[in-house]
Amino acid sequence: MENLIIIGAGFTAATLTRFLNEKDPLIIDKGRGAGGRCSSRRVEDIGVFDHGLQYVSSKNNDFIEFLKDGLKENLLSWNGEFYNEKNELNKSEKFIGKNGNNEFVKKILKSKNQLYKTQVEKLIFKNNHWQVILNSNKSIDTKKVIVTIPEEQCYDLLKDVYDIDYKNQTMSNLTLMVAIKNNINTFSGKKIKEKEDVISWIANENSKNRDVNNSSLGLYTVQSTEKFAEKNCPQYYSNKEIIKKEMLKRFLNILHIENPEVKYCSIHSWRLAYKKNNFSNKVIWDQKKGLGICGDWISGPKLENSWENSKKFSDIYNNS
Question: Using CA atoms, how far apart are residues 201 and 21, in angstroms rounded to an integer?
């Protein structure tokens, strides 16, 4: 029997492995590896796209020191180009992962016990322990379990065993990744229109100066507006090519790129991307059942919010 299972392998789970007085809890996630929404896509002969978290910016010195301690030389200051719908370059101090922003999770997560490509289908509490039912029709018994997945998924998993205050207000977004031959573009003089209804922001991946990025290509990560995502995410799989073409067309128009030679173009749907408001600010640790709930949806959408929640949760857990 496991002593502790953490469901989800995003930044919340990673920080918990640093703060909890537990050695090598079992991490279970449906994805191919650790990262969650700190996602980077590496494309052979093209480069790296941070198609989840773009960068970290914070005035909390303790949080930045935590990142420096976890990532060490892999935490880089980024003064590159990020253009948003407010028609301005973001001038705040920004940090990125040296080889991709999934390093914010991979370098911090501290457990040798990890299980990926595995969906947790159900939790059953009996005889003072948890039975974790997996999509492989297998199960794992554990004394304690901590759930760190998005709010909607958390509710679906726990609705038969634990009552949580479910708001169902997680926002969606769509992310486009584009590589264009001989177009190492800047955003100088370019503006996203105030009433733009498709594109929310554009990041120039070339400005991150990663060694694996193809120097003959212009690499861009482009995110949709909330309105466009709300309209198109429900039909994403049936209309994927149409959605991709619409976002690409609008992106090219914003940067005034004519007759491009597009070497790579892909799109990703984040159905449960982030929560904007109605935060409870309450982590949950039920010592009697050995059940914990922790995540950025409890107090805010930023990486710093996950860190704060993990610290708060760990203080309660470690002193229980």
Answer: 40
d(CA 14, CA 16): 5
Question: Which of these CATH numbers, 3.40.50.10950, 3.40.50.1100, 3.30.465.10, 3.50.50.60, describes 2-34+109-169+277-318?
Answer: 3.50.50.60
| Residue closest to 303 by CA, chosen among 99, 126, 64, 31 | 64
- Angle at the Cα of 111 from the Cα atoms of 109 and 113, rounded to 5 degrees: 130
Cβ(207)–Cβ(80) below 8 Å = yes
275: DSSP letter: E
Give the number of other CB atoms < 10 A from CB of residue 182. Answer: 10
The pTM assigned to this predicted structure is 0.92
| CA contacts within 13 A on the Cβ side of 211 | 3
CB distance 251 to 192 below 8 Å: no
Tens of pLDDT, residues 210-252: 999 999 999 999 999 999 999 999 999 999 999 999 999 999 9
Give Cβ neighbours of residue 300 (< 8 Å, ≥ 6 apart).
275, 279
Structural tokens at position 171: 């926002």
Alpha helices (H) along 88-173: 103-106, 151-158
H-helix segments, 96-235: 103-106, 151-158, 226-232
Domain residue ranges in the chain: 2-34+109-169+277-318, 77-101+170-275
- Does the pLDDT at position 189 exceed 60? no
Tokens of 50: 């941070």
Distance CA 243, CA 233 (A): 9
> Are 84 and 56 contacting, i.e. CB atoms less than 8 angstroms apart?
no
Other CB atoms within 10 A of residue 52 CB: 24
pLDDT tens-place string over residues 246-305: 999 999 998 888 899 999 999 999 988 888 777 788 899 999 999 999 988 888 888 999
